[in-house]
């Protein structure tokens, strides 16, 4: 004898129909039986969802590690980062999920506690808008640096400020910032030295450990102001001697490797926010970063959004054109650092170490960082006043190739 139980084609109904049925039942417009017949949805499905045994948002297969809302927040974060010019690599997405599950002490069913390609494939299938948007960003990152590309970047920047209702920032240099990190060598290359002719045994004593570099993060605003530099040491625990000799006009940080990582960068951003508040800088502010060096995790992203620090990525591979730090600030700083090192070697037999580095670096920093230098750097980058016409497009590789080709053609024509 055949069963008379009604057979339902799997998910014949849409998500919209399901939510409409549940809403009408909740509002007492329909009974479960009536809604089941009208919308062709099993009564057990309606009952389970109304009793919160399963979420209203339907899913096929086993439950995912993240809830529906958590996945939506992750997708939103990925899209927002891409919009700002920071496309996420799959490894970064895996890191985000792994850290989230650990921080919230959630059961982790992933192999070795970390999602992989299969999870990402299914996640992208559930959120197809992420795949499309990231593909656009990645293709842009691989594009050549051209005048057209940079002008389009300025258009996107203006659109971003308009969407954030922050176009007034363009007219306020106190609210436009650029941050970048640089490695400072404690042992400089010897370069040219003078000595007796034909005398081979002419040496220069090294100023510190060879190939040792200390990371320094600097931030400047378009009005010529500098934020205290952030000196990053390669320590698991900061030695007391380093702290004792550290100037109170700098920020201090540490990481196991001495390299900038997301947790350390977030620490700096908190210090930057404190500086903004202390100096009564109107929020929100606009912070330009190099996308290749930036380390933006989810916690930092949420913090910046909450506090009014709007981060925008410089066009890929264009820091020699668009980044004030690279264009006009770090050059004088490194020249003065060399002078400070030379003078220190002449006056002392004590090598440059992590203990005395910050104090010596601050001398070079103070000699180099002048308001006029900072202002000019922002101006020639077109960041303040904000104008794509101020940019030196001759520094674009494609433009230079075109100029060389034209010169060769002209030379050939004149032969």
UniProtKB/TrEMBL annotation:
Entry coiled-coil feature ranges: none
Query: Per the record, GO CC terms?
Result: nucleus
Family matches, as PROSITE patterns: HTH_CENPB (PS51253)
Domain HTH CENPB-type, by residue range, is 58-133
Q: What is its main location?
A: nucleus
Keywords, A to Z, come to: DNA-binding, Nucleus
Compartments where found: Nucleus
Q: Name one GO molecular function term.
A: DNA binding
The superkingdom listed in its UniProt entry is Eukaryota
Q: Which InterPro entries match?
A: CenT-Element_Derived (IPR050863), DDE_SF_endonuclease_dom (IPR004875), HTH_CenpB_DNA-bd_dom (IPR006600), HTH_Psq (IPR007889)
Matching entries from PANTHER family are given as: POGO TRANSPOSABLE ELEMENT WITH KRAB DOMAIN, TRANSPOSON
What is the protein's name according to its record? (apollo) hypothetical protein
Q: What is the species listed in this Swiss-Prot or TrEMBL entry?
A: Parnassius apollo
